[in-house]
Write a structure and sequence with these properties.
31% of the residues lie in helices and 27% in strands. The chain is of the alpha+beta class. The protein folds into two domains: 160 residues, Ribosomal Protein S5, domain 2 (2-Layer Sandwich); 87 residues.
Length: 258
């Protein structure tokens, strides 16, 4: 049996820098959440086709792990991958809430790719694996590199390690699912024209703890938070003073006391 943990992430800050060809560019600080992760296992099983268990609510064609499997096959043409998954199934133990701004689907895809590289002895560099991951999802490259903390820019494909240990964070996820596409659509309609690139100059060089202490307004730290509140008004009804908003939502985070 082969196993790997797929950690959640939070966005310490997330600023939209532009819009091109239907996609958004950004500057963000991604931080791994050490105590929240899915587990992906490859378990011996005679399978007629690629088999995933533990993601029953997600159609196979929409599953990020399946998309990663297809991308690896198409890019490498390595028969070892096909043969391995005739003899193994993928079992996912989900702990990261979906549509919560914590990167669960992207982390699962990246962890799957990293584990396939190891088990099938793929001759592919981490950089090329990350580039391939960007075809699966914008957040996948960060998880492929497996940095504890990184500054992420462009369309998500530019990932630069930031030398900082992950903070001890408390996560709160309300029973609200935020569709990323809907949040970005709302951002385009109401907020895109108000982008100010100078407002976050130098943030990429500051420690995350300093940023959270200095910029206490979660709206200032995350451009998608006001868009999420417009798209999902129930978010605005939550009393989350002292909490920060991750990604396109719906999760909040703060430093643990003590």
């Amino acid at each position: 049996m082969y196993s790997i943990n797929a950690h959640a992430k939070v966005n310490i800050f997330l600023k939209i820098t532009g819009h091109k060809d239907g996609y958004h560019t950004l500057v963000s600080r991604f931080m791994r959440v050490e105590d929240l992760y899915d587990t992906i296992e490859f378990i011996p099983c005679e399978c007629d086709s690629f088999t995933i268990e533990g993601c029953d609510d997600i159609p196979l064609e929409s599953n990020t792990i399946y998309k990663a499997y297809k991308a690896l096959n198409d890019a490498t043409g390595d028969l070892n991958i096909l043969n391995f998954f005739y003899k193994h199934k993928v079992v996912v133990t989900k702990r990261i809430p979906s549509q919560a701004g914590l990167g669960g689907g992207s982390s699962d895809a990246a962890a799957f790719m990293r584990l396939v590289k190891e088990t099938c002895n793929l001759m592919i560099s981490t950089e090329d694996l990350a580039k391939l991951g960007s075809e699966v999802g914008a957040d996948v490259p960060f998880f492929v590199y497996n940095y504890p903390c990184a500054n992420v820019s462009g369309f998500g494909e530019i990932v630069k390690s930031f030398e900082e240990a992950p903070l001890d964070l408390e996560i709160y996820t309300p029973d609200i699912k935020c569709d990323t596409a809907e949040v970005y659509k709302t951002f385009n309609h109401y907020l895109l024209q108000h982008i100010s690139l100078t407002s976050f100059f130098g943030w990429d060089k500051m420690t995350s703890k300093s940023l959270l202490s200095l910029i206490v307004d979660p709206i200032a730290l995350n451009d998608l938070y006001p868009a999420a509140m417009v798209a999902y008004p129930e978010l605005e009804e939550l009393d989350r003073e002292g909490w920060f908003f991750s990604g396109s939502g719906s999760s909040f985070f703060r430093l643990k006391e003590g």
